[in-house]
Amino acid sequence: MCMKKGLIQIYTGRGKGKTTAAVGQAIRGLGHGVKVCFVYFFKVPSEHGYGEFKVLEDLGVKVRGFAKKHPDFFKEVSPENAREQSLKGLKFVEKIFEDSFDMVVLDELIVALRDEFLKEEEVLELLEKKPEETEVILTGRGATSTLMDNADLVSKIEKVKHPYDEGIESREGVEF
C-alpha cells in the first residue's frame, strides 16, 4: 500500500504512552496493508524484553535499534559513542527511505536530539529526505519547537500521576 501523502507525527512530553501510541499507529497501519519499519534508540531489549518489538517483528515489521544504551544510565557508554550510534541510526533511516516503507517510526529519536547526540539540523535534513508518501512518527521527551513546527501532528503527553512516583517500579507487560 502506498499513501498519497505521508505526514510527520510527533509524540512528546513527560507522560507515559509515547511509544505505545507509535506502536498502536504501526499496528493500525499493518491492518491496512501498510509496510512499517520501526527504528528505536536507547532501549536494550536483551535486558528489558520490550515485548512490543517481538510482536511487531512477528507481524512482519522491520525492527532495528541504535544507540541502545544511554550514557546517563550506562556509565560505560560515552556521549561520543551515543552520538556515533545515533548518526548510524540516521544513515539507516536514509536507506530505509529508499526501500519504499509506507511508515517509519523513530522511537526515542527525540531523546537523541534533546541530549545533543544529534543536532537539530541533522534531524530536519533527514525529515526533508522523507519520501512524499511515507508517514514518519517520532517519539521522545523534549521535542524542540522547531521540530514541532516541522511536523503535521504533535501530541504532547503529560504526566498527571504515575505509580513510579509512589515507589512502584516498572512492570513487565505494562511499562516495558
From TrEMBL:
GO biological process: cobalamin biosynthetic process
InterPro entries tied to this protein: CblAdoTrfase_CobA, P-loop_NTPase
Pfam family, one: CobA_CobO_BtuR
GO terms for MF: ATP binding; corrinoid adenosyltransferase activity
SUPFAM superfamilies: P-loop containing nucleoside triphosphate hydrolases
UniProt-listed PANTHER family: CORRINOID ADENOSYLTRANSFERASE
Name of the molecule in the record: Cobinamide adenolsyltransferase
Taxonomic lineage: Archaea, Methanobacteriati, Methanobacteriota, candidate division MSBL1
